[in-house]
């Protein structure tokens, strides 16, 4: 056996031991990070809801904020189940945030301005992006097992 063959065998043995350990560490970090993000979303949503209860009312902006938390939570849940980042949910969050900004801008200024055009144009652009993503996922479905089912449900 040559020196190079011994080195190759040692390298293969080393990979057999370290690869599973590395995969375990990556998966562990993945799950801990997802639980931390999910917990933070729930914590923030509960705090926002408690503030609304304390104030005795909820504005449309408050309700849209709760929808943002709902969409983020759903996104984390889907990512947790499928290990796939649902891009459409990021677009939905963006649309909801821009809608919240639009309502806040109209509520505070009461006059039309170029900012309204920018925000509504951005919402239209995100809606078009969502259409492209949906068309692409329908036309070119993913080959990841289990992902097709979750894509059909959302």
How does this model look, in words?
This protein is an all-alpha fold and 154 residues long. The chain has one domain (3-153). 86% of the residues lie in helices and 0% in strands. It contains 5 helices and no strands. It has helices at 3-55, 60-82, 87-109, 114-139, 147-153. The longest helix is centred in the first third of the chain and has 53 residues, at 3-55. The protein is elongated and about 85 Å long. The model has no long low-confidence stretch (mean pLDDT 86).
Low-confidence stretches: none
Radius of gyration over all CA atoms, rounded: 23 Å
* Total number of distinct structural domains: 1
Instruction: Characterize the main sheet.
Output: none
How many β strands by DSSP? Answer: 0
Distance between the termini: 58 Å
Percent in strands: under 5%
**Mean pLDDT across every amino acid position:** 86
C-alpha geometry: elongated
Q: How much helical structure, as a percent, in the residues? A: over 70%
Element order, helices and strands? HHHHH
What count of helical segments does DSSP give? 5
Derived from helix and strand composition plus strand pairing, the structural class reads mainly alpha
List the helices and strands and how they pair.
Blueprint: H1 3-55, H2 60-82, H3 87-109, H4 114-139, H5 147-153
How would you describe this structure in keywords?
154 residues, mainly alpha, 86% helix
Summarize the structure.
The chain is mainly alpha-helical and 154 residues long. The protein has five helices and no strands.
């Amino acid at each position: 056996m040559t020196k190079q063959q011994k080195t190759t065998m040692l390298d293969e043995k080393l990979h057999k031991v370290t690869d599973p350990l590395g995969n375990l560490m990556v998966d562990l970090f993945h799950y801990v990070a997802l639980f931390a993000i999910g917990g933070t979303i729930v914590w923030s949503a509960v705090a926002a809801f408690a503030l609304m209860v304390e104030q005795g009312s909820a504005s449309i902006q408050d309700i849209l904020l709760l929808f943002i938390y709902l969409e983020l939570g759903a996104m984390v849940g889907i990512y947790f189940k499928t290990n796939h980042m649902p891009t459409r949910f990021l677009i939905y969050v963006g649309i909801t945030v821009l809608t919240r900004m639009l309502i806040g801008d109209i509520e505070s200024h009461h006059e039309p301005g170029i900012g309204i055009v920018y925000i509504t144009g951005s919402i239209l652009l995100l809606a078009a992006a969502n259409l492209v993503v949906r068309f692409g996922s329908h036309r070119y479905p993913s080959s990841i097992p289990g992902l097709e089912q979750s894509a059909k449900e959302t």
